Amino acid sequence: MEAGSVTSYIDVAQIALYVFWAFFAGLIYYLHRENKREGYPLESDRSGLVTVQGFPSVPTPKVFRLHDGTTIYAPRKEAPETVNGTPLANFPGAPLVPNGDPMSSGMGPGAYARRADKPDLTAHGDLKIVPLRADPSFTVAEEDPDPRGFTVVGADGKVAGKVKDVWVDRMEVMFRYFEVELPGGAGVLLPVMFSRIMAGEKRIYVNSILAAQFAGVPRTAKPDSITLLEEEKVTAYFGAGTLYATPLRQEALL
């Protein structure tokens, strides 16, 4: 036999290749199974007794110890949620029509996760997202336009309010929200990603919702902080507007 051969038909290179294939297949199986620690098993609209988890199955619970001393398990038993929508037809998988005000129904593009109702923190335990007034160490770069004082315009071309402050993510070092002061004096948060800044006009255009709908943006419990759940609700409101802001948006393009 030649050097490196185990038998007349198998050599070391073949064994190494087969071991790699087996390792890679096992890695794919492991990662796909670990990916099901959140969101599984799925809820079935056929029966509450049906478990939808696919292959591979949901892994056994694992404990995760967080930096603040708390522990969570994943996967974990989640409290059942009531879907705020009515099926359009009587068959499994039928589209859901939001109940009540579609902008705040939590349906379709306005759906959001039930995250913890507490602020996100930095690695040092400080608030992760704060307005610039709460942290003078952050400011707008000199080469960029300062949006404070800019007029905010809704999708209908009407003025919704003015930017009072900008909220910064101190971990990602980027602006997350514009704090918009409405005509009545109330302040709401506008996600930066839902806006288009026109520095020359000193205006910020928002295409997802109308000017009057800014009054319905979910508020934060505290003036200088936002919780994870509040972030979900604020972003979901603007997401819902992409479909529900006007009846025409729910119609077919052709």
Description of the structure:
There is one protein chain. The protein has 254 residues and is an alpha+beta fold. The chain folds into two domains: 1-78, Photosynthetic reaction centre, H subunit, N-terminal domain (Photosynthetic Reaction Center, Chain H, domain 1, Irregular); 104-247, Photosynthetic Reaction Center, Chain H, domain 2 (Alpha-Beta Complex). The protein has two helices and eleven strands. It has helices spanning 12-34, 228-244, and strands spanning 62-65, 71-74, 85-87, 96-98, 129-131, 151-153, 159-169, 174-181, 187-191, 196-198, 203-205. The strands form three sheets. Strands 5, 6, 7, 8, 9, 10 and 11 form a seven-stranded mixed β-sheet that branches. It has a two-stranded antiparallel ribbon with strand order 1-2. A hairpin with a 4-residue loop joins strand 7 and strand 8 (174-181). It is extended and about 85 Å long. The N and C termini lie far apart (72 Å).
